[in-house]
Amino acid sequence: MITSLNNLFVRTLREDPADAFFPSHRWLVRAGYIRAVAPGIYSWMPLGLRVLRKIEAIVREEFDNMGAQEVRFPGLLPREPYEATGRWSEYGDNLFRLRDRKQADMLLGPTHEEMFTLMAKDVVQSYKDLPLTLYQIQTKYRDEARPRAGLLRGREFVMKDSYSFDIDDAGLRAAYLAHRARYIRIFDRLGFDYRIVKADAGAMGGSASEEFLALSPNGEDTFAYSPGGYAANIEAVTIPAPEPLPYDNAPDAHVERTPDVPTIETLVAFSNERYPRADRPWSGADMLKNVVLKVREPDGTIYPLVIGLPGDREVDEKRLETALAPAEFEPFTAEDFTAYPELVRGYIGPMRGVEQVLGLNGSAGVKYLTDPRVVSGTRWITGANEVDYHVYDLVAGRDFISDGVIDVAEVRSGDPAPDGSGELKLARGIEIGHIFQLGRKYAQALGLQVLDQNGKLVTVTMGSYGLGVSRAVAAIAEGTADDKGLAWPRQVAPYDVLLLATGKDQAVFDAAHAVATELDAAGVAVLLDDRKASPGVKFTDSELLGIPTIVVIGRALATGSVEIRDRVSGASREVPVAEAGREVLAEIRG
Amino acid sequence: MITSLNNLFVRTLREDPADAFFPSHRWLVRAGYIRAVAPGIYSWMPLGLRVLRKIEAIVREEFDNMGAQEVRFPGLLPREPYEATGRWSEYGDNLFRLRDRKQADMLLGPTHEEMFTLMAKDVVQSYKDLPLTLYQIQTKYRDEARPRAGLLRGREFVMKDSYSFDIDDAGLRAAYLAHRARYIRIFDRLGFDYRIVKADAGAMGGSASEEFLALSPNGEDTFAYSPGGYAANIEAVTIPAPEPLPYDNAPDAHVERTPDVPTIETLVAFSNERYPRADRPWSGADMLKNVVLKVREPDGTIYPLVIGLPGDREVDEKRLETALAPAEFEPFTAEDFTAYPELVRGYIGPMRGVEQVLGLNGSAGVKYLTDPRVVSGTRWITGANEVDYHVYDLVAGRDFISDGVIDVAEVRSGDPAPDGSGELKLARGIEIGHIFQLGRKYAQALGLQVLDQNGKLVTVTMGSYGLGVSRAVAAIAEGTADDKGLAWPRQVAPYDVLLLATGKDQAVFDAAHAVATELDAAGVAVLLDDRKASPGVKFTDSELLGIPTIVVIGRALATGSVEIRDRVSGASREVPVAEAGREVLAEIRG
Questions:
Q1: What distance in Å separates residue A492's CA from the closest CA in chain B?
Q2: Are B24 and B154 in contact (CB under 8 A)?
Q3: Comparing C-alpha atoms, which of A206, A86, A80, A77 is closest to residue A140?
Q4: Closest Cα of chain B to A586: distance in Å?
Q5: Pairing relation of β-strands A367-370 and A221-225?
Q6: Distance between terminal CA atoms of chain B?
Q7: Among A126, A175, B154, B433, which is disulfide-ready with B212 (CB 3.0 to 4.6 Å)?
């Protein structure tokens, strides 16, 4: 197929779109692959759609080859199945909800666990019908609070979601591993540089889950990894609790006036000067920082949550989001402080006065959770619930207890890996796949049971596996674009080769058409730039469009030569025009 | 590819689903091709999806070959463009509307004229960028009042919609004809028996429009055709107004008491007895029947509409719907009659008393429209707006006028074709395609202009072309299923051949696998029924599933033979097992 840029429905832009902060977003819009229709909602123009469909084809081929069976669910779904599993409300504002003309509640499917479970229930009856893997490549909807980054976080997007159905845990484990291996094949084929990391199962429920993250400094996900092989999304890092310490010899708690210490650093300095520790100086890690926020449960309940953590660490918002989900959090406002006079801004601590020791839970509806490091016997400087006063030597387990543990402190490069495999490093990535061992949550909620070998009804166990197909378009662009534009890997490029005819000489256009025809006959998808435009415009567009092989037919034709450029490496060489077709074919197929 | 029925995700049903009134719906569900998720919303199971994708592939191939460029728009769209063209409100309850988390109004796209217009506006700048044809194969949403008939009238469905952009009317006409020819190719390839009929453009706007109707006694559309080549959807039939008649010699109108004439027939009989006409007897066609209903405009305005038409004809609801759109109508209730005492139930007529002649428009907000046959000089018997009284010799144009013409009377077999091409006959069909010459409505509303050859800005003219892809699955099934199940034409069948291994003899299964392997190697899509089920179950399923060629490997194998059956014709023949593969191949490729 030869497509002429004279006819191709595309318009390249010389300026960045105002809202594009990510290279993939910038270049996909500028090169005329996609256009925004609303925040997080995009149209696919011909070039973009070709990339999308190539990725779809690779995913479909791999899933067909693993024996998965393709189905397709609607995007518009009834409320009831999602009500049965609780997700109708748990999804919160992320779910697009609507009513039809008969006032029936409906939703736009954010993911289809419920529907697949019901379809399996309709068809499978006995253990002989298992194992079973179903998949679809379909449009999904999530009303993201901050749609941004172009296709990387859309509100309407294309996903491959698949589901495994097994009679027992060993079956689920095998299905999970088969999917994991298939994802590796797919992401390798797509040319991603990616890591598989432990993930939090989140609203999906279930036990084991892993994410495939394409490495990218712009990735929304941060993960931690160690030289010994530990790798986890920051949301899924669990800090092991240290052993409790004896506190028999710990000094008694004492409240002290601590004026003019607005920060942890000034409090540490003040404390080392006025109330030095015998064994070593106080550090930020000895301060018990208490952060207060408001939690909103899906049922609408709102209450203050105080999180106690070492003073040298901040609360990581993403870890907090994950830990609280499906509840959400909001800042604690000046008004809230007025409503809760027990909570003295800047001086919150887990005691109410010198004599009165209690968890904040004792105070009107305030929940108090502490970092895993706050184990029994640890000794802290913390707020005394009075302006300008802190309490010293407040010992966990002796002087206060919390309502539980919350593991939401920031994870830092250099922290020990939770599994003892060395020091953690941090990196960022784009989630391109997520695989879950769901277990029986959905099967139970929706009654998916089969007869086992003994004729007994047992609940099926499921896996759920997502792969972002439209997101992959952007993730590949993000990883391959350079400062001149897109630079597609060959397997997903919209065209194999871009032929540039530059100059005004008819011989140039004739030669370009001849090479195009030769390549087309060999089954190559050719994009031919035979526009009446300046060489400068054509070169700029050729870099912007990102077709992997560029053939320039121009001035050198006078001496019988054409130039073959590699878009990615920038390497270029001259070949005789008569050999251009063969040389390009060798490059494409090599 | 060999698929074993042991593994295929399918369950056939022995009973009809309760809500299935159409053969296609019944069989597609019973054969395990689709499942309902909500009224008018279906999931595709593997067999159904294979048929859908085969149709998609044929449509895509034909559109690519005509030089149309594929794009893809979102299903979830912002309100603004649809507001600009008026369709946000005109679509009424048929539009799925929703709000996102920021309370922005959004909709689920029922069709994408606005979006295509805006995308073209983004890209095309001059006449040199035209003509242009864009298309998508995409999921659409309409909140049908009466979703029924399975995929024939769904609320979520897959459509190919394409749009042509031209600089002038001649270009539009050429694009329209190219589409028309391409539709003919596609529907021929899909094996439809169809007619192309004149259509009403409806809410779409624009001028010329034609529908492709697949002939079917169950079709929702009725069309009229004549021996001379006239063919129009019943909604698009226009009755030409007869020439006005002179009324100089017509008798004066006179009101008469007409007790006990509850029907047109009894009024005719009464009139012929008591007030006979000199020239010929009165007939139903001389009665001016006045039907009253309530009209609701998209802006919410409601008013009574009285339609005057010959007494021997009923109002055709579909023609009325079309004539009033985007307004809708409702019955005129007893309460409404109380609110409008001028309208005397059963005795409505276009005069208010013997002396007072006026259009009903003179009466409080009541609109009066008449059938095209009610031309000046026609002489009627009609209600006198008083119980038990009619007026005789009421002459149109002399004694009353109406507010306009409304062409909504039923069209009957035997009526003359509007173009004089003979007597009309009626038939029913399923709308599988609809092509429109939109003109400049959308381009004007959304500012799609380009520079013409003289450097002047001109508004682009557009065509819009729809083809129901998911509906085609059902329409083909509707036309091909018999009393045993589905019977697919080869080009859309989910598999090429169904191999039945019947009996318990291992040799049978071995032979079936051998034939399957041979066919698979030749590129044939083989479905193999090697289940441990009775021959009866297998035969029943083989008829239900509708695969065009069935090979039975069973008892006859003892004498070296297998049976090849044709699902559609029912023809069957025995061939030596060694030749089975070759014979099947010949049949498939024949």
A1: 17
A2: no
A3: A77
A4: 28
A5: unpaired
A6: 20
A7: B433
Which residues, in sequence order, are CB contacts of A356 under 8 Å at separation 6+?
Answer: none
CB atoms within 10 A of CB A510: 13
- Say yes or no: A453 and A542 in one domain: no
Q: Which residues contact A168 (CB under 8 A, 6 or more apart)?
A: A461
Q: Contact B49/A70, CB-based, under 8 Å?
A: yes
Q: State which residues form the domain around B465.
A: 2-237+426-478
Question: Does A566 share its domain with A535?
Answer: yes
Residue A371 lies in a domain: yes
Would residue A19 count as lying in a domain? yes
Query: How far is Cα B236 from Cα B211, in angstroms, rounded to an integer?
Result: 10
Which of B478, B513, B544 is a domain's end point? B478
pTM comes to 0.92
- Asked if the interface predicted TM-score (ipTM) of this complex is over 0.85, the answer is yes
- CATH number, position A510: 3.40.50.800
Helices (DSSP H) in B31-157: which residue ranges?
Answer: 46-65, 80-84, 87-90, 113-123
Mean pLDDT by 10 residues, chain B (590 residues): 94 90 95 96 98 98 97 98 93 94 97 97 96 98 90 96 97 97 98 94 68 95 95 93 90 91 93 92 95 90 93 95 90 93 88 48 75 95 92 92 92 94 96 95 96 97 97 97 97 98 93 96 96 94 97 94 96 96 92
Q: The domain that contains A380 carries what CATH number?
A: 3.90.960.10
Contact A154, A40 (CB under 8 A): yes
Given the structure tokens 């719907």, which residue do they identify?
A: B321
Between CA B62 and CA B449 the distance in angstroms is 29
| Judgement on whether residues B362 and B456 belong to the same structural domain of the protein | no
d(CA A150, CA B445): 28
Same domain, A468 and A534: no
Nearest to A86 by CA among A297, A296, A298, A295: A298
Residue B433: how many other CB atoms lie within 10 Å: 26
Q: Which two tokens stand for residue A114?
A: 């419920």
Distance from CA of A164 to the nearest CA of B (A): 13
Cα–Cα distance for residue pair B322/B222, rounded to 1 Å: 13
A353: confidence class by pLDDT, cuts 50, 70, 90: very low
Closest residue to B49, CB basis, from A32, A71, A132: A71
The domain tally of chain A equals 3
- What stretches of B515-570 adopt beta strand conformation (E)? 526-529, 549-553, 561-566
B501 and B474 within one domain: no
CA distance B352 to A355: 96
| Backbone dihedral region for residue A86 (phi beyond 0: left; psi -120 to 50: alpha; all else: beta) | left
Of A378, A395, A412, the last residue of a domain is: A395
Classify residue A108: in a domain, yes or no.
Answer: yes
B231/B297 same-domain check? no
Q: How far is the C-alpha of A66 from the C-alpha of A116, rounded, in Å?
A: 18
Angle at the Cα of A476 from the Cα atoms of A470 and A478, rounded to 5 degrees: 105
Q: Across the interface, do B101 and A145 touch by the CB < 8 Å criterion?
A: yes
State residue B326's pLDDT score: 84
- Residues A377 and A525 reside in one and the same domain: no
With CA atoms as reference, the chain B residue closest to A75 would be B156
The CATH number assigned to the domain holding A172 equals 3.30.930.10
Query: Quick one: which of B528, B489, B583 has its CA closest to B1?
Result: B528
pLDDT digits (tens, 9 = 90+) for A136-178: 999 999 999 888 789 999 999 999 999 999 999 999 999 999 9
- Residue A235 domain-assigned? no
Contacts of A531 in chain B (CB under 8 A): none
Q: Which amino acid is at B34?
A: I
Inter-chain contact A143–B11, Cβ cutoff 8 Å? no
For testing the chain A interface, which of B100, B107, B132, B144 should be mutated: the one with the most A CBs within 10 Å?
Answer: B100
- The answer for B345, left when phi > 0, alpha when psi is -120 to 50, beta otherwise, is beta
